[in-house]
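Hello,

I think I submitted the 1,3-dihydroxyacetonephosphate job twice by accident. Can you confirm which output corresponds to this input? Input:
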Amino acid sequence: MRSYIIAGNWKMNKTVAESVALAEEIVAKTKGISKTEVVIAPTYLAAAKVADVVKGSNVKLAVQDIHWQDQGAYTGKVSIDMAKEIGVEYVIIGHSEQRQYFHETDETVNLKAKKVLSAGLKPIICIGETLDERNGGKLESVLTAQVKGAYKDISAEDALKTVIAYEPVWAIGTGVVATDDQAQEAQKYVRSLVAQLYGESVAEALRIQYGGSMNPTNASGLLAQKDIDGGLIGGAALKSDSFFSIISAAEEK
Ligand code: 13P
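Support: Only one job matched these inputs. Its output is below.
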């Protein structure tokens, strides 16, 4: 059975002091969580201090992006070794905001995924269609290109260490959540793509999160879907109460 993974993507929110305080609250609230994997992704600036807070707890650390080069003249970027040194375990890559505002492509997602895996860390690979793409009947072709692009030249063994986050762009930060059926249908299709690439056993083991306006009210219905193995949460992850409600919804399944 796949275990649930609930991850909070804090995006460009929270100062270092606020990040430490939120991480402390989440660590305290999740002491009794045993089945659900809990991950938080603060900003780079806060990550090292948050790493100290989550050490030895049930909460794992992620960062929101990484560069695929080892080091050098890449102003503004952070390397995988820097993340690894402070105890980062997961790296979010290919987020739609990265794709939309910062020229992320399926090629750079692939380069980043390979870099993360080569360092022994785990990528959370974000995919998802825009409203125009969905309305234009392109849902499947968009997801196919994103999945096939992200996993190019990645072995089955490495693919098993990855998580996919299906985040329909129209649901992110809008309050318009995908219905349980819409999310399930898309995620079932994503799993079928993984099966095409790696076979049924990898597809059955690989975890696929849903992301986009997930909150304490809609989480339980989404998490009950067969192909939804967790959530990548933005707004509702910025308060420990709402984030913990979603974690509890997963833990109770
Ligand atoms: P919201 O939960 O704020 O819609 O954000 C989802 C998201 O983009 C997580 O990566």
